Amino acid sequence: MKTWFKELSFSTSKAREVIDLTSKVTSAVRESGIKNGLLIVQLPHATASLVLNENESGLKQDLLNKLDDFAPVRGGYQHDRIDDNAHAHLKSAFIGSSRVLPIADGRVVRGTWQSFLVIEQDGPRTRRLAIFVMGE
Q: Could you tell me if residue 99 is left (phi over 0), alpha (psi between -120 and 50 degrees) or otherwise beta?
């Protein structure tokens, strides 16, 4: 079995936003040369999340709004005594920061409307995305 790893860097420009990294992820899978196997995508940050969903402006705003309903920016959190970003940590903890998908015939197996979306909650920042591919 072959393994392949790449780390991408990208920047966010707002405190809260949704960024589509689908083309970067699928390009990396092609670059790996692995035709059949598994893709692991990891966002190694505690205040941003990684989801698979539709890259549509209304839905992206809905995601941000609902996350704010769940964990408002000023929620009286204990962690805010240290860093004032507890809302971002809570959102990331509940959504998660990694996804595992199959690769078949050189393509990432995902739904028609599934894009790799990073949900920034503590920006602007420079972020990293780790891409690990294994298979044949």
A: beta
The CATH number for 113's domain is 2.60.120.460
**Secondary structure of 10-35 in HEC code, one letter for each residue:** EECCCCCEEEECHHHHHHHHHHHCCC
| Domain housing 33 | 2-135
**pTM of the model as a whole:** 0.96
Angle, nearest 10°, between helix axes 86-95 and 57-70? 110
| Number of domains present in the structure of the chain | 1
Residues 91-124: pLDDT tens digits? 999 999 999 999 999 999 999 999 999 999 999 9
The rounded distance, in Å, linking the Cα atoms of 58 and 22 is: 18
* Cβ neighbours for 61, distance < 8 A, ≥ 6 positions apart: none
Distance, CA of 95 to chain centre: 10
